[in-house]
Amino acid sequence: MATLIDLVETPVRELNQALHTPGGADVWRILNPRGAHAVACGIREGLAVDIEGHVGYYCAGMNQRATVTVHGNAGTGVAENMMSGTVRVRGNASQSAGATGHGGLLAIDGDASARCGISMKGVDIVVGGDVGHMSAFMGQAGRLVVCGDAGDALGDSLYEARIYVRGSVKSLGADCVEKEMRDEHLAELAELLKAAERDEDPADFRRYGSARTLYHFKVDNLTAY
Amino acid sequence: MEPASHGLRESATFDRATIHAIQRAAETGIYDIRGWGAKRRLPHFDDLLLLGASMSRYPLEGYRERCDTDVVLGTRHAKHPLRLSTPVTIAGMSFGALSAQAKEALGRGASEAGTSTTTGDGGMTPEERGHSKHLVYQYLPSRYGMNPDDLRAADAIEVVLGQGAKPGGGGMLLGQKITERVAGMRTLPVGIDQRSACRHPDWTGPDDLAIKILELREITDWEKPIYVKVGATRTYYDVKLAVHAGADVVVVDGMQGGTAATQDVFIEHVGIPTLAALPQAVRALQELGVHREVQLIVSGGIRGGADMAKALALGADAVAIGTAALIALGDNHPKYDAEYRRLGSAAGYFDDYQDGRDPAGISTQDEELAARLDPVDAGRRLANFLRVMTMEAQTLARACGKAHLLHLEPEDLVALTIESAAMARVPLAGTNWIPGAGL
Ligand SMILES: Cc1cc2nc3c(=O)[nH]c(=O)nc-3n(C[C@H](O)[C@H](O)[C@H](O)COP(=O)(O)O)c2cc1C
Q1: What is the reported pTM?
Q2: Could you tell me the residue ranges of all domains in chain B?
Q3: Nearest to B218 among A38, A95, A141 (CB)
Q4: Looking at residue A1, what is its pLDDT?
Q5: B33-424 falls under which CATH superfamily?
């Protein structure tokens, strides 16, 4: 039985405190989030948290080990800087989804907005729909999978993050290039899609990554800085 | 023969440093990146004087009567504010820019003197956490090494919007300093020239910042003070917005503030002097009715007890030091002069923190160079310096009749120049004229 918390009656402050207290319940159901910010952020334990409705900014921020599912849409910075565990958004996500995430899986069933996976540092992000402009900007590590289309300047100033897109890419950002899809990439993509409960065919995707030409300051790169 | 002695005249516009800069740019095709802060002459605390006691005020007995120095930071919302023995803190300087030994020494020195030290763009190292009684954890646009465990291990959190040396600029760390350990902490390939972002990745503007601060409080259960650090530019507005966003402490870093690696053109031409920013910050806090409730830390060119006393008199609750702390550790020491010269610099001029070949073992990741800095010994030197700063400030405060450093007030100050009088909003010495007052 899940522990039920209704955010109409319980302030977010109390909910988060309860989620942070060691030895509490393992399974939680949260009702009426109604766009509240910072819901279920900073969890440390492998809890299962289901949120029934739309959330505001930074839901499941810095998540460790927990599985947090938003049965609705998520505002800016969902799962920002997540370390591990799984965060699922059944609807759409706003800007900067999964920003600076270090690990774990962020699965968004709908679309994600601008800057999805910005500055990602090891997190895996799978988006069922489209992503907006500047997605994976300065992505350092981890993988971004886009089953729909990508907006402008995808992967700008990319470091070592890998990007897979099934649909069209409006434009690539500075230093981001299309790369060959080898067997190991098809295999890792198949795994990511499976983890995100998706059934797209990996063969339909293209891979993008860093050309690594901006790794050293050079006068010849002047126009790219 | 000295050229000047037979009538040759150097151009004030094209002085030798300027000529050299043009020549260097022409040869290399890349701008000058360096450490340290603005080197040009600027209105500063030297342009203010303390009045001391007289017929109408009486002084406290030096060494006999108490002049307290303790300060509490983060009283507005945090369950556990920082209680420091002296109102001078160590500013954020990254592991990466500095060696692990230097970071440890900063922690040791600060702890011995009863004050706080701060992480930087590159995460928290066990060395500095272990040796710092009070550690402020920076939350920067790059979020290198950012993780909730370190957030919870910190004593305060500092959201960094900018630095005085480069308001509006991101960070850089050149490849020679991106060793395996530094790269690992930042999740970057070894040896690349690292760029760090100038804007936060998941919020823009003051309304978002309020939500971001809320999130950080929620993650840490409202225990830690949250600072907001800004480079000095539109300080009056920035401070008001930081207060509205929920900051417990506002840190204002003037344009003299040090940096580990920034374009020279940026260091010298962007931002306003510390002296100009501080009164604006105080006015903003006063107008919101939160002066002393939201504490103000001021940095950028603080060199000793006199600067500290004057900053406190203008309304700061504490000052922070970067460059002075590095000098106390051993930076620019004459014993390394020959080595500085081999690098094309000299003791007293060395500013190549970006380069990674620091003979003093401070701004380097080279193991052999870093091993030259003994963290225990360097930490002791820093503690000495912090004690001297504190005692100097006490000397000045007692002379003004103050039983606590924080009792110093603008009425204790006069200005030596019209510029500093206008900026600090204190009268020109010997007059009651404050240029621009009432405008
Ligand atoms: C070597 C070095 C590294 C620095 N690294 C950072 C940093 O990582 N984050 C930051 O907010 N400021 C950084 N700063 C700026 C300091 O926090 C502080 O604002 C400045 O040094 C204060 O001015 P002062 O050096 O004149 O005391 C750095 C400064 C120096 C000298």
Answers
A1: 0.97
A2: 33-424
A3: A38
A4: 83
A5: Aldolase class I (3.20.20.70)
